[in-house]
Amino acid sequence: METLVKRTIQIAQPSTGAAEWQAVKEPIMSGWLTSGPKVRAFEKNFAEMHQVKRACAVTSCTTALHLALAALDIKPGDEVLVPAFTWVATANAVLYCGATPVFVDVDPVTFNMDPSDIAHRITEKTKAIIPVHLFGLCADMDAIKNAAPGLYIIEDAACAAGAIYKEVYAGGLGDFGCFSFHPRKSVTTGEGGMVTTNNNDYGDKLECLRNHGASVSEEVRHHGPRPYLLADFDVMGFNYRMTDLQGAMGIVQLSKLDQFIGERAKWAKFYERELDEVEWLRTPQEPEGYRHGWQSYACFVDETKAPFSRNKIMEILQEKGVSTRPGTHAVHMLGFYANKYNLKPEDYPGAQAANDYSMAIPLHNLMTKEDYEYVVAAIKSIA
To answer: Is residue 185 flagged as an active site residue?
Structure first.
């Protein structure tokens, strides 16, 4: 390892360039900057790619989750099941509605919701469940549906653009699918999100609620016969509109999604093969019948076999120029939720293990062959 020239490799980097730069110039020059024709085109392309009837662009996956819950009229007194190991936004969105998030443990191998822990979490107050397709791997939706019959299903597909479960794209596996376009995701609009659905009534409701509850969009009103009249507002909504600057960038990024996933899948196989001999590191798998979105490459550090703790290994790799991160956090172990609901780490052992021992290593579309080889060499040098 000492003979290699030190590299600096980020955990993630967005793959953007001249095409995105040219795309955003059009709305700047046209003067239509808020949600308009570029957002509509982005929504159309996203819906077609994910084989769903409707796609509604919003400001983030967090607001996408909130919008989906609001469209279902989730309210105070209701309960919504969420995995204990996920980004905090999944649970926060439930609280935004005044409802109560009820945590479900996860499988520390897949990092996704454990279907066997669902049934006993359901009460007469439970209205919905939010499976998370963490790191781009779809949750086991058939098992989840069998364990939670009759519940509304909102997919948190923040990491799962382009992912597939048994021939069905993420976003079409429940009542709603919610996606993120944060820069750490496979495709980005800077910030931004998308809600998908196969129910046209839900789609109409989403479009209304994201625009303050207006009966028509700003674009439709301005281009209509009476642009001087304001829309009707019969329901309370939110300002969750995506801009046309983001929509223009999203169109370009989305056109590269299959290419991005293909490249990441190739190097995920490289990691799996090259790191197989590292007995203390378990690499992620792609089950048969799935297409992994490979938003990130989250491993599991077995501290019973490792020469150091997970955190020490991350420190060593950082010193060698290799950025790592915990996969994400166990929400029930965060101060706010632990205190609010009197939760202990051991209440959800799978999530606790994932919190303490998961480690994401670099995987993105700006890495070179030499970068991947360097990451492998850096990990193998730890002994």
So the answer is: yes
